[in-house]
Amino acid sequence: MAPVQVTAEVVGLRRAGAYHHMTLLAPGIPEGTRPGHFVALAVGGEGSGMLLRRAFSIHKVAPGSAGTVEIVFATHGQGTRWLADRRRGDKLDVIGPLGRPFTLPREPVACVLVAGGYGAAPLFALSEQLRARGCRVDMVLGAASEDRLFGVLEARRTSASVTVTTDDGSAGIRGRVTDPLPEIIRAAGADVVYACGPMAMLAAVAEVAAGLGAHSQCAVEEAMACGIGVCMTCVLPVRGADGVTRMVRSCTDGPVFRGSDVRWADVGSVPPDTLGAPVAGGH
User: Fold this and answer.
1) What domains appear along the chain, each with residue ranges and CATH number?
2) pLDDT digits 0-9 by tens, 226-262
3) How far apart are CA 124 and CA 74, in angstroms?
4) How far is CA 102 from CA 130, 131, 196, in A?
5) CA distance 181 to 175
6) pTM to 2 decimals?
């Protein structure tokens, strides 16, 4: 389904540790949503100087005439602070579903889902669909501290195993998600690793997966100004099937990419061998 633009109504907003969990009445969006899709919300209200939309992964949806969309976010700046101040009944301009979602395996295989912080939000709907296909699901949830974890209890109810890591040791294993990840992949015999979180975490997860012969799919967290592929602010270097590196848009070509295709060390730059890259000394 093509994305739609709707005036959504806030029907729920609560705290979830360090984050905000918002439920929007947004008929028309849930029907086309798959795990990994995102929505773009206008912030600031009419007359606001905040012209750029804010992009958020879709946590869950409930289709139907009263279709709802759930998102999880942290307050990082003026736009998300404004969003956190909304109340039930407030209206928001929303576009979605946007982007390319996760790809599901054709056959039942063991899968490991890895998340950093509220990057876990889209993984629960993914877990549900994987289990419906007969896949084993193990989850690894990490964050800087316990209050920045998301969805641990739900993960424990729905996954074969859940491993928690925190940088400060306030919950689970002290360390990063990649510390226990190799053993989890080996123990589960996992063929696919799905990940969502900070770019450095995704790079490390993709490296671990590749080293163990597992495929990885990573939902990147690039800043997206428009969400529809126009502004080119969210580009990153990705190798194509032909081996050629291109600067692709996270919002339309992603946000989900094969971990082995992304040139993680070059994110934020244009590698010299990229198709169309400026030639040194050229005019």
Assistant:
1) 4-98 (2.40.30.10), 102-221 (3.40.50.80), 225-283 (no CATH)
2) 777 777 788 999 999 999 999 999 989 999 999 999 9
3) 18
4) 11, 14, 11
5) 11
6) 0.94
